[in-house]
Amino acid sequence: MDFDRYLSQRAQRVRGSLGRQTSVPIPGLINLGSGTPDFLPPPEVFEAMQRALEAGRVQYTPWTGIPELRAAIAEKLKAENGITVDPDSEVLVTSGAQEALMTVLMTLLDPGDEALTPSPHYDEYTRDATILGGTLVPVPTTLETNFTVRAADLEAALTPRTKALVIVTPNNPTGTVLPEATLREIAALAQQRDLLVISDEIYEYYVYDGHRHISMASLPGMRERTITINSFSKSFGMTGLRLGYIAAPAPLIEAMLPFHHAMMICANAVAQMGGLAALRHPRDWFADILAEYDRRRRQWMASLDDLGLPYSEPQGAYYVFIDIRPTGLSSREFVARAREEARLVFQPGTIGGGAGEGFIRGALTQGSPQFEEGLERFVAFVRKLL
């Protein structure tokens, strides 16, 4: 059968964009580019979910999330991010940040509409915008600025079709943390040109060397025009539990509800209880994890310095964006050969837009001793290419 004739235009636009995924482990492969953290949530999360299961709390919750969780999210945003929201009307609990991204873009973008974001960027934004018939316009950044976008470059890319700016800090895949001065310039641009800002802050706890995460909505004049997206996946190691949230002005949350309901009705009831426990539990447990990720970060940088390979300074998140142009290979060629010849898995820098060509995404998420073995293989593989 010719199944193509049954496919919608939106399905055909993104068909194959995810590649193939296998659930069968391949012996000997070490993944040095994974976006999945290698730690478990605190035990209190499991205990809360177990109690929820034992109590039979498996029915639908309110569409926006259980009131206790929304209240805890609002408390967290006020205490840690300097953002004041009404938990009853300005918080929407989602099935992870992934659903949050799609819900937000479905709410904002009509066919032909545009949103701007620095490139390299997280590729799901492009896919979601493409599904909707909109356009995510990449604004190129460079290694020379550590992939820090300038407000002037964003402004130069604006058109009458631009509705929003997408800002991800700390950034995937570059590890860039936007400084306060840059965020204030972007905030001023958004206000001057009457734009919304979608602020993706899922890596907020991963910052190094004195860098500081600042929430866009906390800046003067930005609360009413910022949609904040966050998740329990990276912050608490709860990736498979699929729990995230959106904080935004009440009229926007109201507009998002039909899309959220159509896709999910509500977030997983048991996971919501785990998320509530996560937010109520002191966060001191994370200090050792961050220290270990910092150790791996420094080990990555030492290996790259020894090889003479350039890279962007990994200021936040848990990625290392590596310049492999000295090897003479393209991003995809390097990834393919590393897999075949060194049994290593990386992500090509091009998954986040054209500005990532000539780079690969390394990560800090592989535990020991595989991490050290993987680095040794990487160094040996690159030496053969240089």
Task: Walk me through what this model shows.
- It is a single chain.
- Helix content is 40%, strand content 14%.
- It is an alpha/beta fold and 386 residues long.
- The protein has 2 domains: 3-41 and 285-385, Aspartate Aminotransferase, domain 1, CATH 3.90.1150.10; 57-283, Aspartate Aminotransferase, domain 2, CATH 3.40.640.10.
- The chain has a 7-stranded mixed β-sheet, sandwiched between helices. A 3-stranded antiparallel β-sheet has the order 9-12-11, with helices on one face. A two-stranded parallel ribbon has the order 1-10.
- The protein is globular, with a radius of gyration of 21 Å.
- The model has no long low-confidence stretch (mean pLDDT 95).
